[in-house]
């Protein structure tokens, strides 16, 4: 039996051979090449796992949880405790998923809510302490550039104007 260019053993004559879905995944993808991106935004926390770093990576996993980190930043200057706890719980879950998927390369970025909130640095420290995931708080300019790179990667001949409307920023 051939699976993604990898040869799987044939069952012996008269023997029924069941191949689990996870065995097929392991045969096709090498988890050492997997790469994860975590986007800690003003509204949501998203995890995307790619098969490898390339011009057109294949998405293996994509999940977004609405946490509302930016909900109170404009009024109080701080991220709401309930939103912070929700984001931390989400990131703990993501860490377990990444461990299960054996993903070693992880890039986590935080945007406007974390950047603008007075408790942003404390939140980042808590993430790193409780999950072991290092977080880079990016500037608005870096956020806009990354959005543009995403568009160009997906639509190489893009010609026009694109807007990225986040929870706190329009790029």
Can you characterise this structure?
The structure is a single chain. With 171 residues, the protein is of the alpha/beta class. The chain folds into two domains: 1-29, no CATH class; 34-154, 2-Layer Sandwich (Nucleotidyltransferase, domain 5). It contains six helices and seven strands, in the order E-E-H-E-E-E-H-H-E-H-H-E-H. The chain has helices at 21-28, 73-76, 81-100, 112-116, 120-131, 140-154; strands spanning 2-3, 6-7, 35-40, 44-50, 59-66, 105-110, 135-137. The strands form two sheets. It has a five-stranded mixed beta sheet. It has a two-stranded antiparallel sheet with strand order 1-2. Strand 4 and strand 5 form a beta hairpin. Helix 3 runs parallel beside helix 5. The longest helix is centred in the middle third of the chain and has 20 residues, at 81-100. The chain is globular, with a radius of gyration of 20 Å. Residues 48-168 form the Ppx/GppA phosphatase N-terminal domain. This is Ppx/GppA phosphatase N-terminal domain-containing protein. GO terms for molecular function: pyrophosphatase activity. It comes from Iodidimonas gelatinilytica.
Poorly predicted ranges: 11-19
Based on DSSP secondary structure assignment, what is the total number of beta strands?
A: 7
The number of domains is: 2
Q: Class of the largest domain, according to the CATH hierarchy? A: Alpha Beta
The CATH superfamily name of the largest domain is ATPase, nucleotide binding domain
Oligomerization state = single chain
* Count, helices: 6
Beginning-to-end CA distance, first to last residue: 49 Å
Mean of residue pLDDT?
A: 82
Major beta sheet summary: 5 strands, mixed
CATH names the topology of the largest domain as Nucleotidyltransferase, domain 5
Record the strand order, biggest sheet: 5-4-3-6-7
Shape field: globular
């Amino acid at each position: 039996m051939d699976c993604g260019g990898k040869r799987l053993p044939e069952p012996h004559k008269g023997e029924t051979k069941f191949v689990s879905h996870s065995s097929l995944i392991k045969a096709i993808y090498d988890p050492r090449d997997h790469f994860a991106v975590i986007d800690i935004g003003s509204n949501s926390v998203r995890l995307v796992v790619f098969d490898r770093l390339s011009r057109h990576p294949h998405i293996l996993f994509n999940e977004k949880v609405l946490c509302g980190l930016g909900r109170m930043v404009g009024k109080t200057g701080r991220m709401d405790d309930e939103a912070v706890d929700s984001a931390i719980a989400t990131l703990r879950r993501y860490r377990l998923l990444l461990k299960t998927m054996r993903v070693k390369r992880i890039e986590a970025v935080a945007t406007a809510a974390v950047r603008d909130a007075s408790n942003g640095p404390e939140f980042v420290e808590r993430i790193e302490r409780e999950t072991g995931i290092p977080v880079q708080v990016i500037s608005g300019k870096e956020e806009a550039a990354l959005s543009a790179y995403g568009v160009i990667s997906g639509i190489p001949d893009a010609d026009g104007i694109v807007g990225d409307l986040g929870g706190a920023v329009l790029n």
